[in-house]
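Sample intake sheet
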Amino acid sequence: MTLTLDPTDLDALADRVAKKLSASLRPSLPKASAVAAPAKLAFSIREAAHLLSLGERTVADAVASGAIASTKIGRLRRINRAELERIAREGI
């Protein structure tokens, strides 16, 4: 599966993904008695699709074809943050 985008569309998509990633990865401010949670390192296909503004099926197909690198942890498939940043820069 090949996704082609106009360079201006790709830049806009990369900006949107970068903003969503930075917002979702920004650590929460700790409460007085709580410890701040670490930044999330891996995302489900559903989460990745949401962050990339793509359909889940599109992301799942790209994972299945190897266009998006992922890791299987038990029965779960996860896409790491660096891979999402790569997709935001380069596209699928």
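Comment: The mean pLDDT is 82. Helices lie at 7-25, 45-52, 56-65, 81-90.
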